[in-house]
Amino acid sequence: MTSNTPDNPGSQPPSDALDVEVNTVPVELYKILKFEGLVGSGAEAKAVVADGMVRVNDIVEIQKRKKIVAGDVIEFAGQRLRIVFTEAG
User: Which residues contact 52 (CB under 8 A, 6 or more apart)?
Assistant: First the structure.
């Protein structure tokens, strides 16, 4: 997973969201938080999700293993991440 600022004005992502590129979907929610460095560990990621501190598409999400797909927007700790699928290779 890699992050970058959105540069495609036609896709209209949330203006303050960072694109997170994934080459496999779906991805479990806690893994995105961990790999993007928003938490220190997988256990911490699972805890913040279970505590209702994470939103997916503007809805509080408490499923740690929630399947995240391209187009989903994750919000946590003042960060907004938009999931973008990119083919491997």
Answer: 60, 62
